[in-house]
Design a protein that fits this description.
four-stranded antiparallel beta sheet, 10 strands, Helicase, Ruva Protein, domain 3, 19 helices, 3-hydroxy-3-methylglutaryl-coenzyme A Reductase, Chain A, domain 2, about 425 residues, Alpha-Beta Plaits, alpha+beta, 3 domains
C-alpha cells in the first residue's frame, strides 16, 4: 500500500540516515529492505555474476525519493535512481504545485505486449494473412498451452493481427501476437509464444519465418496521466498575474518542442529523467521503456515531437498530460532479484504493474514541467547549478565541511558557476 502522506516538510534538511528511517516507517519497510538501502544497494559478487556475463564488480548510483505526489487520490513517495542533482527536487516541487487541484490522475491500458513474427518468401501475402486469421484461435490455443502462472492468472495471448509491409528486402507479412502479461513486463513470455508457433505459421502460410521477438513499442500498453496547475500555483509569489505569465512562457516552450525535433529531443529527455530514474530504482528494463517512449513520440506525427501535451483551459489553468508506452513489471526480473529494487518497490507499495506504469508516467509529467518552468523563467542553469555546486566542489578536491562552504560561496555570487571558479574558491577557503 502507498504511504499515508507524501508531504515531508524539511525532509531535505535531514541526514541520509534520518531520511531512511522516516521512509522506512512510512512505507512499513522490512529490516531486509532497510539494510538493502543502507548498504548502498550493492549486490554480492555471486548475485552479480548470475545476472550478466564477465562480471568484474558493481557500481552504485544515488537513490532519492520524490515527495508530494498524490496520484489517483493516493499519496506516494517515489524512489529515483539517478546521478543528476536537480531532478528529484524539481519533480517534488511540481508535484506540490498541483496538490490543491487533486494531484495526478491516471488511466492506463491493460498490460498487452506485442510479439512480432516476420514471414518471408510468400507468393501471395494477402492469402497468407487470411490463412493466419482463419487459424487464429488454433494459434492462440497453442500460445496459451504453455505452463505459465501468467496464463493461470488470466493472461496469455488474447488476439492475433496481421500486417503487410514494404521493405528494401521486398514485401513482408508481419504477425502480431497480443499478449496480456499481467504484472510481468512479459518479454520472456511473448518471445516464447512467438517461437512456439513458428512451425505452425510456416505450415499455414507456406512461407519462411525469420525474426520472432517482442516489440518494445508497446502501443497497446499505454499509460495516461493528467494534472492541472492553477496560475497561483505556478507563480512564485502566489499572484494570479505572475502565474499567468509563467503559464504563457511554459506554453511557448512546449509549442517549440511540438514543432521542432531538436528541441523535442531535449524536452523529452527531461521527461525520461524521471521515468528512467524510477525504472532503474525499481529494477525495470529502462532501455526498453526509453525506446518505446521515444518511438511513440514519432508515431502518427509528421516528425519526432513532444511526449507531453500542455494547454490552458477555459479557467486559465495549465493542464498537462502524457500518453506513452509503459511496459513494466513487478514480478520476475531484476525487480525481484536486486535487493534495492525490491526495497524501492516496497516504498511505492504498488500492487500491480498497471499502478507502477501510472506512477512512472506521473513522475515524467512532473519532471517535464519542472524543466520547462525553469527554462521559461530563471533559466535551467540557475537551479541546476545551485544543486550541482556541491558535486563541483568535490571534483575540485573539497572534503568534509569544505564542500558546503565552497558551494554556499559560489552560489551566493552572480555570474556563471564554473569549475575554475569552484577551484579558486576552495583555495581561498583553505587559505582562510
Amino acid at each position: 500500500m502507498p504511504v499515508e502522506d507524501s508531504r515531508l516538510s524539511g525532509f531535505y534538511k535531514l541526514s541520509v540516515e534520518e531520511r531512511r528511517d522516516i521512509v522506512a516507517k512510512l512505507a512499513l519497510l522490512s529490516k531486509e529492505d532497510v539494510e538493502a538501502l543502507a548498504t548502498h544497494g550493492e549486490l554480492s559478487e555471486v548475485s552479480a555474476d548470475r545476472m550478466i556475463g564477465n562480471v568484474i564488480g558493481t557500481m552504485s548510483l544515488p537513490v532519492g525519493v520524490a515527495t508530494n505526489f498524490v496520484i489517483d487520490d493516493r499519496p506516494y513517495i517515489i524512489p529515483f535512481c539517478v546521478e543528476e542533482s536537480s531532478i528529484v527536487a524539481a519533480a517534488s516541487n511540481m508535484a506540490k504545485r498541483c496538490l490543491n487541484s487533486g494531484g495526478f490522475r491516471t488511466n492506463s491500458d491493460e498490460p498487452i505486449m506485442i510479439a512480432q513474427i516476420q514471414v518471408l518468401d510468400l507468393d501471395d501475402h494477402d492469402m497468407a494473412g487470411e490463412a493466419i486469421l482463419t487459424a487464429k484461435y488454433e494459434l492462440m490455443a497453442m500460445c496459451n498451452s504453455l505452463p505459465s502462472t501468467m496464463i493461470r492468472l488470466g493472461g496469455g495471448c488474447k488476439d492475433i493481427i496481421v500486417r503487410t509491409i514494404d521493405t528494401m528486402s521486398g514485401k513482408m507479412l508481419v504477425i502480431h501476437l497480443l499478449v496480456d502479461t499481467r504484472d510481468a513486463m512479459g518479454a520472456n513470455a511473448v518471445n516464447t509464444m512467438a517461437e512456439l508457433i513458428t512451425g505452425k505459421v510456416e505450415e499455414i502460410t507456406g512461407g519462411r519465418v525469420h525474426l520472432r521477438i517482442l516489440s518494445n513499442l508497446a502501443s497497446n500498453r499505454l499509460a495516461r496521466v493528467e494534472a492541472t496547475f492553477t496560475p497561483e500555483e505556478m507563480s512564485d509569489d502566489g499572484s494570479l498575474e505572475s502565474g499567468r505569465k509563467v503559464i504563457s512562457a511554459i506554453l511557448e516552450a512546449h509549442h517549440f518542442a511540438v514543432a521542432d525535433p531538436y528541441r523535442a529531443t531535449t524536452h523529452n529527455k527531461g521527461v525520461m529523467n524521471a521515468i528512467s530514474a524510477v525504472a532503474l530504482a525499481c529494477g525495470q528494463d529502462w532501455r526498453a521503456i526509453e525506446a518505446g517512449c521515444h518511438a511513440w513520440a514519432a508515431v502518427d506525427n509528421e516528425h519526432y515531437s513532444s511526449m507531453t501535451k500542455w494547454v490552458r483551459d477555459d479557467n486559465g489553468n495549465l493542464v498537462g498530460s502524457i500518453e506513452t508506452p509503459m511496459a513494466v513489471g513487478i514480478v520476475g526480473g531484476a525487480s525481484k532479484v536486486h535487493p534495492a529494487a525490491r526495497a524501492n518497490l516496497a516504498i511505492l507499495g504498488v500492487e500491480s504493474a498497471k499502478e507502477l506504469a501510472g506512477i512512472m508516467a506521473a513522475a515524467g509529467l512532473a519532471q517535464n514541467l519542472g524543466a520547462m518552468r525553469a527554462l521559461a523563467t530563471s533559466g535551467i542553469q540557475a537551479g541546476h547549478m545551485k544543486l550541482h555546486a556541491r558535486n563541483m566542489a568535490v571534483s575540485a578536491g573539497a572534503i568534509g565541511e569544505e564542500i558546503e562552504k565552497v558551494a554556499n560561496i559560489v552560489n551566493s555570487q552572480s555570474g556563471p558557476v564554473t569549475q575554475q571558479l569552484v577551484k579558486e574558491t576552495l583555495d581561498s577557503v583553505r587559505r582562510g
